[in-house]
Amino acid sequence: MDEQLKRLREETLAKARQFQRRRDELGKQPGAGPVNVPVAGKVFDEEEVAALVDSALDFWLTAGRFTDQFEAELAKYFGLKHAMMTNSGSSANLVALSALTSKYLGNRRLSKGDEVITTATSFPTTINPIFQNGLVPVFLDVELDTYNIDAGMVEGAISDRTRAVMVAHTLGNPFDVEKISRICKERGLFLIEDCCDALGSMVNGRMVGTFGDLATLSFYPAHHITTGEGGAVLTSNPLLKRAAESFRDWGRDCWCKTGCDNTCGKRFGWKIGGLPMGYDHKYIYSNIGYNLKATDMSAAIGLAQLKKLPLFMEARKENHNFYLDFFKKHEKFFILPKSYPGADPSHFGYLVNIRGGAPFSRGELVAHLESNGIAMRMLFGGNIVRQPAYEGEKYRVVGDLLRADHMMGNAFWIGIYPGITPKLRAHVTRAFDEFLSKF
Questions:
Q1: pLDDT value of residue 28
Q2: What CATH code would you report for 309-436?
């Protein structure tokens, strides 16, 4: 690089850091007004700002050197061979599930009408790819204390059309992934772990996301680390990696990175399908794909965030444990969260799950919290089959989904992200105590 450009770049990054340090200082000054407790939010400092400016100076507007490095660091963190960044966690789910329908898989590929087992309390974009690929979701109920799929129902839900299981580690609490992965191996089913809420969660010393054939992550600002918009697909299977990359990158057969040509060494030497011999491999399409790539600017932020992940996880666990200890004294009103033996969750939120027959409704409690500036969120779509989007769609239900209905009517979660300070936690618990003292 030209020495003057190098010096100007260093000066620009120094100014960017200085700018953010000053902004942080101003933000720490005490302000007047009511206390607001958000449910989630981005946590960053001068390093993320400098990384973003650094990538902007390259003006490489699609995936590039920062993306390559971020993907490599993600794969290393999980101990997997491949990580493919996408423009969102929802896109990651679409890419992962679509990869199972690729012709690259031969007779193992999923075909229209095949079934995919999931849970009725999923986030919509965990199950939407099943519908979008012409497959049939099989909805199972959840457990009230782990708020995860009831693993005991999985074997009984398998039919001669079942080909895969796609399920999330809800709010960062691992589902019984050892049992479900064992069932999938024994029955020849694919397993996709949706880890969008669970970055860093472990089971018996093993990272969630490493038990299945594919895993997905989200880097939306509410999640464990953020790239703004962004996500990733993880795998160690080279065939699934190629299929996922193809669906992410327009469905092309070529695996050259953006800006590269002739990685295979025979760009004009292929004969595929009905195309003429020698047709440009960069323009051969073997899957009906999308363009779901992320930008280098997002990846640059992700690299800075990934370094902070251990501290972020520690803060989340501390906040979750604080609320768990607090709610023990109110256990007559609430079903307390539990984890499976050996699970070490990297929590996304704290689930407040009101017992049936409690002397108050969720609406009354939520109204009190909102009046005190405390934000909350539902457990995603509740019982998803009751959502209007799925009316008239083809799916199969196993059991009565009564526990999913309970979650829809009685559960919500509050924030535990690193921005929740002891002062904010105290405000939250005072509000709960004030409300519950009436009963």
A1: 78
A2: 3.90.1150.10
CB 144 within 8 A of CB 406: yes
> Where exactly are the structural domains of the chain?
57-297, 309-436
CA atoms 126, 314, 306, 23: torsion sign: positive
Give 57-297's CATH code, choosing from 3.30.1380.10, 3.40.640.10, 3.40.50.261, 3.40.50.300.
3.40.640.10
Element (H, E) at 84: strand 82-86
Identity at 438, one-letter amino acid code: K
Q: Mind telling me the catalytic residues?
A: 223
pLDDT digits (tens, 9 = 90+) for 228-276: 999 999 999 999 999 999 999 999 999 888 778 888 899 999 999 999 9
Contacts of 421-427 with C-beta under 8 Å, sequence gap 24+, read 423/35, 424/35, 424/37, 425/319, 425/322, 425/323, 427/35, 427/37, 427/372, 427/373, 427/374
Cα distances (angstroms) measured from residue 403 to each of 146, 333, 433: 12, 17, 27
Question: Which single residue is written with the structure tokens 């795998």?
Answer: 235
